[in-house]
TrEMBL record:
Signal peptide: none annotated. This is Prefoldin subunit 6. It holds the Pfam family Prefoldin_2. The keyword Coiled coil applies. GO terms for cellular component: cytoplasm; prefoldin complex. Keywords: Chaperone, Coiled coil. The keyword Coiled coil applies. GO terms for molecular function: protein-folding chaperone binding; tubulin binding; unfolded protein binding. CDD domains: Prefoldin_6 (cd23161). GO terms for biological process: chaperone-mediated protein complex assembly; positive regulation of transcription elongation by RNA polymerase II; protein folding; tubulin complex assembly. It comes from the Eukaryota. Belongs to the prefoldin subunit beta family.
Amino acid sequence: MSSLSAVEAKLEAESKAFQLLQKELSQVIESRQRLESQQQENELVNTEFEHLDQDSNIYKLIGPVLVKQDKSEAATNVKNRLNLISSEIKRVETQLNELTQKSEAKKQEVG
């Protein structure tokens, strides 16, 4: 009878570990979705910059104030942001793949 309770305890522990993995996986998926949204937004801004004249005025919202910015500086900032977002998406994708594999392995242990 004690071996049955040991098996139940192990199963419960494995089940909790699986639930924690699922929660972490959900958080990573949300993070990836946020990054993809930021990427789309910055790509849109980058496309808009391509359609502007060189002498167009560009403003950046800093707190409650619009501050005038140089077009080349603003375009460079957006490209740098896109590079950072892309590298962050790659990092999150790797994390997502690792968590998915761990989750599947844990699912096999529990199931």
